[in-house]
From TrEMBL, chain A:
The lineage of its organism: Bacteria, Pseudomonadati, Pseudomonadota, Alphaproteobacteria, Rhodobacterales. Belongs to the 3-oxoacid CoA-transferase subunit B family. Signal peptide: none annotated. Pfam families: CoA_trans (PF01144). This is CoA transferase subunit B. The keyword Metal-binding does not apply. InterPro entries: 3-oxoacid_CoA-transf_B, CoA_trans_fam_I, NagB/RpiA_transferase-like. It comes from Rhodophyticola porphyridii. The keyword Transferase applies.
TrEMBL record, chain B:
This is CoA transferase subunit A. It comes from Rhodophyticola porphyridii. Belongs to the 3-oxoacid CoA-transferase subunit A family. SMART domains: CoA_trans. GO terms for molecular function: CoA-transferase activity. It holds the Pfam family CoA_trans. The keyword Nucleotide-binding does not apply. The keyword Transferase applies. SUPFAM superfamilies: NagB/RpiA/CoA transferase-like. Keywords: Transferase.
Length: 207, 234
């Protein structure tokens, strides 16, 4: 059985180590916060906050306290606030240990496309290009194939790039792959998924 | 020098002209200069270029200036959630320059610091790099981005004293300090102007040197995405 959204998030949470400062993208990556357990992880929100807390209780929403997805959130005892230039200074400066992001396509050389489909409505890259260029480690979490069954793990990206050669690890519903010299290396498969099944769903070179 | 004005229109008097570049603070609808945007709508000034991370929503924030067609060009990182924006953009009435969010913030900060250009690795190898100088430092490629020097900055803070020292609240700080810094003139709106001496000098987020005019007023502070959890989940 391939992993579901929550199992993918749980697997991605294993990437995080005690003491890390981490940025989580929108979608499945947001769920990763539910699986960090006892690990001491500080979440960054690139609109200007370290130490992001959970959603507020009903009636306690604060319009001055939102995350990068514009959702109302809360602060923690460790929280600090800063302006956008400082926020991206710490991102570009490599102070954020890891970013966990969704993707439309990933290529075997680590190229990432997740912001634009030509001919469709383009909303913008937000902070994604800065994040993938700057953080210590980029982990992509996504379905292995699109809704037509085509592989999203490619030899080369077909969509406009968010970053070139930036991805370190890919976690999909079928398993985990690392970007290495010459292609992708299978790290593990989801329980019940064979290596052959994972290879068959992958267009990229597996080494 | 008197910085405190009675209304947005008074504070903007003499500062606006057609075709000007305005830098605006705010992220989504959080920490946006609502009152000054209303003042600019009232003034009727047009052909504006606005550098702002987002473009508001239909009928609120910068969305108001889009409704009145006063904006000719936006410099932004993310412009979803705005149907009128998309309509004008797709019909070619509105120009859009996408900037990665951190690049936009740094372009403002740099402009405010007298830095006309800087190299960043954000966007290397993407469409953002097209037409930009690429330079290698320590074996890695970086692209040249230019500082933003705005004709006017409009920002929103929580508290100010009458000399323009500003204090922001939580994530409403966001783009406001860099936006304030990059304008020839900066007008700030705050929820409260407090007596001189009542702000702790060690806790000023933006020194008053960056703020030329100041107003106080009521803010709607609309929430874009209300997300909550139930008490029993605690």
């Amino acid at each position: 059985m391939p992993w579901d959204r929550n199992q993918m998030a749980a697997r991605a949470a294993e990437e995080l180590e005690d003491g890390m400062y981490v940025n989580l993208g929108i979608g499945i990556p947001t769920l990763v916060a539910n699986y960090v357990g006892d690990k001491d992880i500080t979440l960054q929100s690139e609109n200007g906050m370290l130490g992001m807390g959970p959603f507020p209780f009903e009636g306690e929403e604060d319009p001055d306290l939102i995350n990068a997805g514009k959702q109302t959130i809360t602060e923690l005892r460790r929280t600090s606030y800063f302006d956008s230039a400082t926020s991206f200074g710490m991102i570009r400066g490599g102070k954020i240990a890891a970013a966990i992001l969704g993707a439309m396509e990933v290529a075997e050389n680590g190229d990432l496309a997740n912001w634009m489909i030509p001919g469709k409505l383009v909303k913008g890259m937000g902070g994604a290009m800065d994040l993938v260029a700057g953080v210590g480690r980029v982990v992509v979490v996504m379905d292995h194939t699109n809704k037509h069954g085509d592989s999203k793990v490619l030899r080369e990206c077909t969509l406009p790039l968010t970053g070139k050669g930036v991805v370190d690890r890919i976690i999909t519903n079928l398993g985990v792959l690392d970007v290495v010299e010459g292609g992708l290396k299978i790290v593990e498969t989801a329980e019940g998924v064979t290596e052959d099944e994972l290879r068959a769903a992958t267009e990229a070179t597996i080494v | 020098m008197k910085k405190v004005y009675g209304s947005a229109s008074e504070a903007l008097d003499g500062l606006l002209f057609d075709g000007m570049l305005i830098a605006a603070g705010g992220f989504g609808l959080c920490g946006i200069p609502e009152l000054l945007i209303d003042g600019i709508v009232e003034s009727g000034v047009k052909d504006l270029t606005v550098a702002s991370n987002n473009a508001g929503v239909d009928g609120f924030g910068l969305g108001k200036l889009l409704d009145t067609r006063q904006i000719r060009k936006m410099m932004s990182s993310y412009v979803g959630e705005n149907a009128e924006f998309m309509r004008q953009y797709l019909s070619g009435e509105l120009e859009l320059e996408f900037n990665p969010q951190g690049t936009l913030a740094e372009r403002m900060r740099a402009g405010g610091c007298g830095i006309p250009g800087f190299y960043t690795k954000t966007g290397v190898g993407t469409v953002i790099a097209e037409g930009k100088e690429v330079k290698s430092f320590r074996g890695e490629d970086y692209i040249l981005e230019e500082g933003i020097f705005a004709d006017l900055s409009i920002v929103k803070a929580w508290k100010a004293d009458e000399t323009g020292n500003l204090v922001f609240r939580k994530t409403a700080r966001n783009f406001n300090p860099p936006a304030a810094m990059c304008g020839k003139v900066c007008v700030a709106e705050v929820e409260e102007i407090v007596p001189l001496g009542s702000l702790d000098p060690d806790k000023i987020h933006l020194p008053g040197i960056y703020v030329h005019r100041l107003i106080q007023g009521e803010h709607e502070k609309r929430i874009e995405q209300r997300t909550v959890r139930k008490r029993e989940e605690a």
